[in-house]
Amino acid sequence: MSRQVRIAVAQYAPHVGDVVGNRAAAVRWAQRAAAEGVDLLVLPELASSGYVFESDEEAARTAEDASTGEIVTALADVCAGSATHCVVGINERSGRVRHNSAVLIGPHGPLATYRKLHLFNDEQSWFEPGGELPAVDLPFGRVGMVICFDLWFPEAVRALALAGAEIIAVPTNWVASFRRQVYDAAGYCVGDIVAMASAAQNGVVMACADRIGVEREVRFLGCSVIVGGDGWPVAGPAGPDEEAFLVAEVDLDVVAATKRRTPRNHLIEDRRPDSYNAVVIPAPRPSSAVPTPTAP
After folding, report:
1. In angstroms, rounded to a whole number, what is the distance separating the alpha carbons of residues 283 and 6?
2. Which residue range is the domain that position 154 belongs to?
3. pLDDT at residue 286, rounded to an integer
4. Strands, E, within 139-267: which ranges?
5. At 82, which CATH number?
6. How much is the pLDDT for 18?
7. Would you place residue 239 in the very low, low, confident or very high pLDDT band (cuts 50, 70, 90)?
8. What residues are annotated to the active site?
9. Which residues, at least 6 apart from 45, have a Cβ–Cβ distance to it below 8 Å?
10. Residue 99 counted as domain residue
């Protein structure tokens, strides 16, 4: 058996506030993916609106509905003429609140919305966190979604892996802010390394689409990457400043086999949740007994 899937991530620079230009850019990448026979395309976090808002009014003005918004509708039109599925990061308007969300779109329209659980820094001023992790059955396999800072919380990817997800789509906006070191000697950023660790720990494919550029003094890191189930990149990382379209052919049957790390070890079956109970051992107290004098 062989379940070949063609996965792509697009790395480019959305612009804050430019919903029309951002929509056009997303459509161009989706059209390229459809023309190249891509099964799953991942676009960056907040690709619809840009990232660094200056005010609540700006965040509100660039928000849209996850089912009927213009970027989702435009990408659905592209997917409708092909077998391509697309995950795009959007500034989602949901009733009276907004979410930093990822929408999974297929040939018949939007299929699922994931709302970022772990909001990074100023995102907490503009968005409310989500509350669940959807895993979606597509014709080629089961796909989950997390967004950017979610990777720093291993429970999210593990929960999706336990739900049978084989590919994790990661729209992201990795930033240089707050980092002692931005890249290592090989050009990897920490996001790449965390994605590789997540793939290796769970036997899943990680498809990370980062953005590039500088937006209101915030610098984005690029380094988009597709990681195989064994934890090693199969495409990328891309450069820090360049537009990139990374494509990888992945056999999901091979990915499933990576969970069997030795003839006697399996990443899921060997879990011991009944024993994951940390026990704190207190430091020994100093003795209160008066020492007995020693004879001369």
Report:
1. 54
2. 4-275
3. 84
4. 141-145, 167-171, 205-209, 214-215, 218-219, 225-227, 233-235, 244-251, 260-262, 265-266
5. 3.60.110.10
6. 97
7. very high
8. 45, 116, 148
9. 51, 89, 100, 102, 147, 148, 171, 172, 173, 211
10. yes
